[in-house]
Design goal:
The structure is a single chain. Among the domains are: about 60 residues, no CATH class; about 60 residues, no CATH class. It is about 75% helix and about 5% strand.
Length: about 200
């Protein structure tokens, strides 16, 4: 990817954040050419990510779910160790202290952070869901769901994600209702209204 393409997308994002009405102008497509360029850049990045994930899951096909989850947490720790080290320092602890934890406690640490726990579980499930190819939109879906599932009362998403969230128990773990589509939302809300009237 050329630096000019990447720089163009960054400039669009910065312009949207720099002014009071920048985001509104961006979302209402006042500059269609810039929006088209930014959207195409995002789609290229998403397709590249999907291919990387597809390649990785092919290589990791022989691993069980727990091993994949541990690998995800290890990668997460590697990518965010400087942030964690700063946070630990504020509690008079070092990164070395943290790394002295056994595997069980390290896993419990990451599973105790709801957004990371959901993200890891959904990624592991994608790795093991061989009946469908990785979709370029999966990254965006997982990003939204990793926040929505643990912190919202009701999540409306695609049937595939609803199936994964309920099959893995993420909906029960975080006490949220995960629904596939607006039609199911209307039915659910109507049933809740019936319960309230009774």
């Amino acid at each position: 990817m050329s630096s000019s393409t990447s720089g163009g997308s960054n400039q669009v994002a910065q312009a949207a954040l720099d002014s009071e009405h920048g985001l509104l102008r961006y979302l209402t497509a006042e500059d269609e050419e810039t929006n088209t360029t930014a959207t195409a850049d995002f789609q290229r990045r998403s397709a590249a990510w999907a291919q990387l994930l597809e390649d990785a899951r092919t290589r990791a096909r022989c691993f069980d779910a727990q091993t994949l989850k541990r690998a995800y947490f290890g990668d997460y720790l590697y990518r965010h160790q400087s942030v964690l080290a700063r946070a630990l320092a504020s509690y008079q602890r070092s990164f070395d202290d943290f790394m002295k934890l056994d595997a069980e406690h390290l896993i419990a640490f990451f599973e105790g952070i709801p957004s990371i726990d959901v993200e890891a579980q959904l990624l592991v499930d994608i790795f093991r869901h061989w009946d469908r190819a990785v979709d370029p939109n999966d990254l965006t879906d997982i990003s939204f769901l990793s926040i929505a599932i643990p912190y919202c009362d009701i999540v409306v998403t695609e049937r595939f994600w609803t199936h994964l969230a309920t099959r893995t128990g993420l909906d029960r773990k975080y006490d949220t209702v995960v629904i596939a589509g607006v039609e199911q939302l209307a039915s659910y809300l109507a049933s809740q209204g019936e319960e309230l009237r009774e």
